[in-house]
Amino acid sequence: MENSDHIQSVQITPNSILAETPPTIPLSVAIERATSWRKMITSLPEESKLPQAIPACDSVGPLIPSQLIFRAININMRDIDLLKQEHPDASSVRLYMSIPDPDFPFQICGMLVPVDAQNNDMLTRSSAANISKEEMLKNKAYSTVYDFTQPCPTLCNTMSPLFDSFNSVEPYLRYKK
């Protein structure tokens, strides 16, 4: 697994100077990873068709139909900028997976949480001494858990090769001959 805690120097073009950029992976590896994710999810059997539930069951259907496979989370850059402004002492952000409405279990979203230099979640803001623990847990004014992501499926780029390995990568290559 790549180390996301460091910055690596990469040469952008033969004529450019070295620039500091976050670590990346080749597009081909990203496509392989996204394809592996979809294959893994579609291989999960329905709970009702698991062999231990029905020993005589020969057919095992997928838990999630392919059109409902959770593929990505969209995060608005403005929201990231605002999060950075509100938590300048955070060293990173952690994304927790969530299902906001149990009636729609395939609408997976992310909750972003600022993380301190010791790798601890920064879940609440400082409060006055007279605030109870219960009040801090129930009142969003004290929370630093952000819910501004949009799931895919819902907000998707269905033509991306990361969405489906059958899609062409050509429209996404920004190269000059």
Structure description:
- With 177 residues, the chain is an alpha+beta fold.
- It is built from 3 helices and 6 strands; from the N terminus they run E-E-H-E-H-E-E-H-E.
- The chain has helices spanning 27-43, 77-86, 133-138, and strands at residues 8-11, 18-21, 72-75, 92-98, 109-115, 149-152.
- A two-stranded antiparallel sheet has the order 1-2. The protein has a two-stranded antiparallel ribbon with strand order 3-6.
- A hairpin with a 6-residue loop joins strand 1 (8-11) and strand 2 (18-21).
- The protein is globular and about 60 Å long.
Instruction: Please report the number of helical segments.
Output: 3
Spans of at least 5 consecutive residues whose pLDDT stays below 50 are 1-12, 53-57
Instruction: Count every beta strand, where a strand is a DSSP E run of 2 or more residues.
Output: 6
Question: How are the strands of the biggest sheet laid out side by side?
Answer: 1-2
Note the run of SSEs as H and E: EEHEHEEHE
Biggest pleated-sheet summary: 2 strands, antiparallel
Question: What is the general shape?
Answer: globular
Radius of gyration: 21 Å
Cα separation of the termini? 33 Å
**Relative helix content:** 10-25%
Give the DSSP E fraction (strand runs of 2 or more residues).
15-25%
Q: Give me the secondary-structure category.
A: alpha+beta
Roughly what is the average pLDDT, rounded to an integer? 80
